[in-house]
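At this stage, I wrote out one protein's amino acid sequence and its backbone structure tokens, and that material follows here:
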Amino acid sequence: MSAPLEAFLRSQQGIPHLLEHSRLISSLQAIFAEIAPPQIAQYARVSNVRGGKVIIVTESGAIANKLRQFSTSLQEAFGKMGENSSGIEFKVQPFYETLSAVPTEEEDDTTRQGSAVASQRLEELHHQLPQDSPLAQAVRRLAKTLQAGNDTEEKLLRS
């Protein structure tokens, strides 16, 4: 461990300060979870308190905008807890869990099954439409494209 870090952790501002700060953030998160609508709160979290501002991180700009509507209520609730914040800052930062680039095997199977069902339904729709209509031709091309993608994927999986 580096000397400055070790000195900081052993000082009065070290571990006790960090512990107090983490408790504060946990308390603010609990209040946030009570006030914000659950369907929105699941996509945001209290991440820090800095310079008197409570910083809330959201997954998207749309969630941040929606939460701004609750900022007065949040600030009042935080004040009742004893945290006299000068404001609330919303930051957009996609959560790591939502950025999974590689689908799980289960997700892969579900996608494959969904594509096969979609292709089948498009074929059924194609047969219900007048055969010479541009829509019927477009639906048929889309069904063939989906089916070709499924067939190629199946061949790759078998090899």
